[in-house]
């Protein structure tokens, strides 16, 4: 199931935003928040391995992962969520439960731009639990000593708190929080409720998932996580009547509040309550603009706000929001497509044709974009253009796959084609898993060397890259470029900075500069994702031979990388001239 849960869980990123809420959806209000720990480190946590433990405790592997994530994020650290790790690994063909070598974990963490990997093991005789945890530093690579805690099985909550605190102290000897201060930041949960919650997350069927999650919510009525997870299940089932009450149980000060409110707004759209939906999305937008976290708009919110505004007849406001969304994400075809629908509603056939043409340019494999471009050109009286596009579409998709549009003036027939964004990425960082092709049986000598602190220049460069990503995510290209250049001044071989700068130049249309930066990134660290991006740039430059070389190398590096395989498939179907999308 698609999850709304953020890939990064962090009080540093999310709580300042969530505290903007006093009442929802009617208003936001600023509240001052203080962070006792301003570090900008990212942790990637893997499930803990069971060592000779009873099958009845099979939930503990992911349970310890989730508890570690919870403990770290509550203390202000940035941590990939359980759902985020699963989603990224699944996307690239790695089973979520796969046992990975140090070298593979290190490579995944590098490509995710994490600073530390957390992994470990546990054993129990049914009464006593022993947990061992380790930190793997990413830059420079180093494996820190084992941290171990033992205690009665029913002391899991306290045990995990002590373990997480000791890991942070090991990572930073000057860690500012005492164990008592760290523990005070953690929620007090019943062990049986937590077990039910984890079993719910692990369940593969919705019926079982809901059973476990509802029991967790019954045992801990004030705990927001089960309520949010239940809302997710119903949301994915398109049962908004059931989802909204569960989302409403997520407190406005909780890190999942933004996702719960966004999903509620989507539900209001799907229930035909456009005015209430517009209020939700407008409130979210205003809060983000005032937030020190985002620094700008989020295209998903802008898209849905625009659709709500259009339904209310506010076409100028809808066009403004969608235009901004398209500027932030220049590769997404949904935004110009929705602009085309609004133009059709206004009877502006020329504007509609232009928007649908742009949608087709962005995503050449979407037959709906082609169908509406043909329709708009026919309305304009451009019969030859419409016929040429129809023939190209038929050649590409076949007659059965090209939608047939049947306008019905008695109904709002265009409404069913609106593209509502149901998923919200709340991460301020745009992190991507690039290449996870390190041999699973290999071990890294660097990973087993004594841990050493990263240099001040390296840490400063990483911080600049993250800030640049926030600016890039917000569509602030000049500010983002400044941050990436600062990172490279500190660390000229920083592969991530070169990669992000290449992406920025690609978005600006400066393709030669994009190629240069992507090649520099590859010179520092080979990556299937970077090679795939480079292939796309070469296609835009009409250099299909070079594009094929890069995409084939990407597949050799990561055979399960879906984007590379899809691009190669697209190139196989394209004409020899190598046209772009």
Q: What is the mean predicted local confidence, pLDDT?
A: 82
DSSP helix fraction: 55-70%
Secondary structure tally: strands: 10
CATH architecture of the domain at 38-176: 3-Layer(aba) Sandwich
Cα gyration radius (Å): 25 Å
Examine the coordinates and then state which fold CATH places here, giving the name of the CATH topology of the domain at 38-176.
Rossmann fold
Largest sheet: 8 strands, mixed
Low-pLDDT residue intervals, each spanning 5 or more residues: 10-38, 428-452, 577-581
How many DSSP helices?
25
The CATH superfamily label of the domain at 38-176 reads ABC-type transport auxiliary lipoprotein component
Distance between the termini: 29 Å
Gross morphology is globular
The assigned structural class equals alpha/beta
Tell me the β content. 5-15%
CATH class of the domain at 38-176: Alpha Beta
Short description:
The protein has 581 residues and is α/β, with parallel strands linked by helices. The chain contains 25 helices and 10 strands.
Features:
two-stranded antiparallel sheet, 8-stranded mixed β-sheet, Rossmann fold, 7% strand, 56% helix, Serine Threonine Protein Phosphatase 5, Tetratricopeptide repeat, alpha/beta, 581 residues, 25 helices
Question: How would you describe this protein?
Answer:
The structure is a single chain. With 581 residues, the protein is an alpha/beta fold. Among the domains are: 38-176, ABC-type transport auxiliary lipoprotein component (Rossmann fold), CATH 3.40.50.10610; 458-573, Tetratricopeptide repeat domain (Serine Threonine Protein Phosphatase 5, Tetratricopeptide repeat). Helix content is 56%, strand content 7%. It is built from 25 helices and ten strands. It has helices spanning 11-18, 60-74, 82-91, 102-111, 156-171, 179-184, 191-202, 206-219, 224-236, 240-247, 257-270, 274-290, 299-311, 315-328, 334-346, 349-362, 367-380, 383-397, 456-473, 477-490, 495-508, 511-524, 528-540, 544-557, 562-573, and strands at 8-9, 21-23, 27-28, 42-45, 49-50, 78-80, 116-124, 128-137, 142-143, 147-152. Strands 1, 4, 5, 6, 7, 8, 9 and 10 form an eight-stranded mixed β-sheet that branches. The protein has a two-stranded antiparallel sheet with strand order 2-3. A hairpin with a 3-residue loop joins strand 7 and strand 8. Helix 17 runs antiparallel to helix 18, helix 19 (456-473) packs parallel to helix 21 and helix 22 (511-524) packs antiparallel against helix 23 (528-540). It is globular and about 80 Å long.
């Amino acid at each position: 199931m698609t999850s709304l849960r953020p890939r990064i869980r962090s009080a540093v990123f999310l709580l300042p935003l969530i505290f903007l809420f006093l009442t929802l959806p009617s208003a936001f209000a600023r509240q001052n928040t203080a962070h006792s720990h301003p570090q900008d480190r990212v942790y990637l946590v893997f499930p803990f391995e069971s060592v000779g433990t009873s099958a009845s405790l099979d939930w503990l592997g992911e349970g310890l992962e989730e508890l570690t994530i919870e403990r770290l994020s509550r203390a202000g650290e940035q941590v990939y969520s359980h759902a985020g790790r699963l989603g990224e690994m699944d996307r690239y063909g790695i089973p979520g439960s796969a046992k990975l070598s140090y070298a593979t974990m290190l490579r995944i963490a590098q490509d995710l731009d994490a600073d530390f990997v957390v992994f470990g093991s546990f054993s129990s005789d049914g009464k006593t639990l022993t947990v061992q945890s380790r930190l793997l530093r990413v830059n420079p690579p180093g494996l820190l000593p084992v941290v171990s805690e033992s205690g009665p099985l029913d002391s899991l909550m306290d045990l995990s708190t002590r373990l997480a605190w000791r890991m942070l102290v090991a990572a930073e000897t000057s860690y500012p929080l005492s164990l008592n201060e760290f523990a005070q930041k953690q929620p007090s949960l019943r062990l049986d409720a937590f077990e039910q919650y984890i079993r719910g997350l692990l369940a593969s069927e919705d019926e079982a998932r809901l059973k476990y999650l509802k029991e967790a919510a019954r045992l801990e009525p004030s705990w927001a996580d089960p309520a949010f997870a239940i809302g997710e299940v119903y949301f994915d089932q398109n049962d908004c009547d059931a989802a909204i009450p569960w989302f409403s149980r997520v407190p406005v000060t909780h890190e999942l509040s933004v996702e719960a409110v966004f999903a509620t707004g989507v539900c209001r759209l799907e229930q035909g309550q456009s005015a209430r939906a517009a209020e939700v999305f407008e409130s979210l937008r205003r809060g983000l603009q005032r937030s020190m976290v985002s620094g700008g708009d989020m295209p998903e919110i802008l898209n849905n706000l625009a659709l709500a505004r259009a339904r209310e007849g506010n076409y100028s406001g809808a066009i403004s929001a969608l235009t901004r969304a398209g500027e932030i994400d220049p590769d997404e075809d949904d935004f110009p497509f929705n602009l085309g629908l609004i133009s059709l509603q206004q009877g502006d056939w020329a504007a509609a044709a232009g928007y649908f043409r742009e949608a087709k340019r962005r995503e050449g494999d979407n037959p709906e974009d082609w169908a509406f471009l043909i329709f708009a050109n026919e309305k304009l009286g451009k019969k030859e253009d419409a016929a040429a596009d129809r023939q190209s579409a038929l050649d590409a998709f076949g007659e059965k796959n090209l939608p047939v549009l049947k306008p019905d003036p008695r109904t709002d027939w265009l409404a069913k084609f609106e593209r509502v964004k149901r998923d919200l990425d709340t991460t301020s960082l745009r992190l991507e898993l690039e290449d996870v092709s390190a041999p699973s049986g290999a071990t890294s000598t660097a990973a087993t060397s004594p841990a050493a602190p990263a240099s001040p220049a390296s840490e400063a460069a990483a911080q600049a890259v993250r800030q640049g990503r926030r600016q890039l995510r917000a569509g602030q290209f000049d500010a983002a470029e400044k941050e990436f250049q600062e990172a490279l001044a500190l660390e000229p071989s920083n592969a991530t900075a070169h990669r992000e700068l290449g992406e920025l130049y690609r978005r600006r249309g400066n393709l030669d500069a994009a190629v240069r930066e992507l090649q520099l990134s590859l010179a520092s660290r080979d990556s299937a994702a970077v090679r795939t991006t480079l292939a796309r740039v070469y296609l835009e430059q009409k250099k299909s031979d070079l594009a094929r070389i890069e995409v084939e190398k990407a597949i050799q590096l990561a055979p399960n990388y879906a984007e590379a395989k899809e691009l190669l498939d697209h190139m196989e179907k394209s004409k020899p001239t190598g046209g772009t999308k």
